[in-house]
Amino acid sequence: AGTVVYENSTEASKAVAKEIADLIKVKEAQKQPCILGLATGSSPKGLYAELVRLHKEEGLSFKNVVSFNLDEYYPMEPDSINSYVRFMKELLFDQVDILPENCHIPDGTLSKEGIADYCSQYEAKIKALGGIDLQILGIGGNGHIGFNESGSLQNSKTRLVALDHITRVAASNDFSGLDNTPRTAITLGVKAIMEAKRVILMAWGERKSNIIKASIEGEVTNRVPASYLQEHNNATFVLDKAAASKLT
Ligand code: F6R
């Protein structure tokens, strides 16, 4: 995997947005759908802002884009303030011309018994479209990608997972306290992430610097799922200076 370091997250986000815009246009010219794997959280906010700007000011169309988000809390109502459905609508989907039926986010309202089938269908839909062209990732303080926490295997499937304590603590502000923070989530599995043709992991700030070092320079281990990207043939860690500050 490669590493690219930018002066700040704004510059970095613009560069990632440019790559996505170029890919969308190439696919459009080929009359092909562009399959994007999308993340939520703070890291991709600048990216989505720039994609919205490219749509509004430079005419970038998302009509040929089909998106699959990485994860959603479980249980979660789509109109809840903390749902990833709401996040994606507010920051991207409602601000561009992507077709609502082309936006996929794991369903936080399923019955427990329905989850396994739903997850295999989620993966099957991606496969039927020819796979993810470009996957956007953030990274958790524990090295999680999507909600594939420490211990997730490289061949793990899309599934219901228990969130790590550290992940719940990181989210607890949004949920006004740990007691109200979900304990589980549905996540795209590591296998599906690794099958994406291109992967971009974005990380900003000093608080990510230790886990970035472990992911890029440490051993490939299930303790740090982001370290699996070392074995992906087209993955790039896009960092700001602070996140890269511990790299040798
Ligand atoms: C979100 C996701 C998570 C986040 C990660 C970093 O869809 O899959 O893996 O990318 O927890 O979150 P932020 O960007 O808020 O630091």
Automatic annotation (TrEMBL):
<feature type="domain" description="Glucosamine/galactosamine-6-phosphate isomerase">
    <location>
        <begin position="8"/>
        <end position="236"/>
    </location>
</feature>
<protein>
    <recommendedName>
        <fullName>Glucosamine-6-phosphate deaminase</fullName>
    </recommendedName>
</protein>
